Amino acid sequence: MDIELARTFLAVAETGSFLEAAKRVHVAQSTVSLRIRALEQQLGRSLFDRSKTGAALTEAGRHFQRHAQTLARTWMQAKLDAALPAGMETVLAVGAPSSLWDGFLTGALPGLRRALPEVAVRASAMASDALVQLFGQGGLDLMVAYRPKAAAGLAVEQLFEDEFVLVSSDPDTSTDPFGTEYVLVDWGPEFRADHLLVLPDIRTPGFQLDIGTLALQHLRNVPASAYFPKRLVAADLRAGWLRRIEGAPRFGYSAYAVISEGQRGEYAGQAVQFLRQYALGGGTVERDEAVGGV
């Protein structure tokens, strides 16, 4: 089977739209239609119910979805393996939003490489939406994310709880922490939705950043306030240059590791168990300790 047929099928399944799928795989909508029709002819089954509102998977489509994910992942893995250096058996593609690299995965990575010396690691940091898209297309073996959507064929394991707290670098306690110097950090769609729900009056703050480390550096340079995972700023709070805003809303999220069900017994499954043990051992407590590894 042409791998592009599987990739196109997955794009339609994930977006529910031939038009949106065309944008995702960078072809014309007519090409998407031709590919899906060719795939349905090969399988002898209709994979989508088409309507004016979009495209929904049929029962046959749902059954085929996990096989398409396996095909896409196998092809991606084959391309990576073909370029492996001597002494390496395979490549493990790991992806997460920057908030979960900072203070967790960056610290876990050295120990993971020691635990799996025969595995080359390809690490990616990206926005949650792009992360889910790449994982669905088979571009990642292991995804670490907040509140991943449950789906057939996926193995999901909770790693730890993250708490986002409001902190300020302004020594003046009379300053409004949600005033003109408040920085809205984009910690992902979950945080954005909860922030809008809990703090509806702060729709367009004066300054927005999508990378947490840049926001932290901004607070070093300018008296300002922002939300951060508590584990990231614990040392800074102790050092005294940051202070926590007591009484401000807090946001809690569980971090999960996600792999395909078929990879439980493979290197991806071993990596998940390593990350779980790393988290249980306190690797997420604070940035400075986590970077030291296991």
TrEMBL record:
Gene Ontology molecular function terms on file: DNA-binding transcription factor activity; transcription cis-regulatory region binding
UniProt keyword DNA-binding present: yes
Alphabetized UniProt keyword annotations: DNA-binding, Transcription, Transcription regulation
PROSITE patterns: HTH_LYSR
Keyword Ribosomal protein: no
Location of the HTH lysR-type domain: 1-58
Top-level taxon in the UniProt lineage: Bacteria
Membrane-spanning ranges: none
Family that this chain belongs to: Belongs to the LysR transcriptional regulatory family.
UniProt name for this protein: Cat operon transcriptional regulator
Gene label: catM
